[in-house]
Amino acid sequence: MLSGRRLDLLDPSPLDVEIEDIAHGLARVARWNGQTHGAHIFSVAQHALLVERIARAAFPDIDARWRLCVLLHDAPEYVIGDMISPFKAVIGGDYKAVEARLLAAISRRFSLPVHWPAALVKMVKSADRSAAFYEATTLAGFAEAEARRLFGAPARLDPAVLQEYLSPWTADRAKARFLERFAELKP
User: pLDDT value at position 72?
Assistant: First the structure.
């Protein structure tokens, strides 16, 4: 990592996890394999911010620790990249095991539960699917009917918020906004 940390993928230590490495990596990993409109990639960092924003709107009583979990839901991708869901399904268990170990180390590092409660996982999945719908229809060329079939009906969000979060940012802006939101949520 740029911080100088060496992260063991088979046995990741929370001591080797740094938020700056996460933000830097996620800001440079493209969602949708880079197949999006815009002058810049739509990064996983920007996606994570959108998911957290959707969760905040859909679940206004969610506490800051859980919002931090939502923000970090794709954090393992700073190391392993973002793979489209159909490919993850083909790879299966090995990929999921590595991803789970990374998320556990990240959760430990930031004093979050290693095993996320079912209610939190449900919130993350709901907000993530809504974000995927909006990304698919706004950035990735999906028809609304196709996106609705794949991701379900999205949570309603203020059009101004959607405009802000669905205009691809530079990597530096995505990294800075991710770090800013992390600092706001970290206890």
Answer: 98
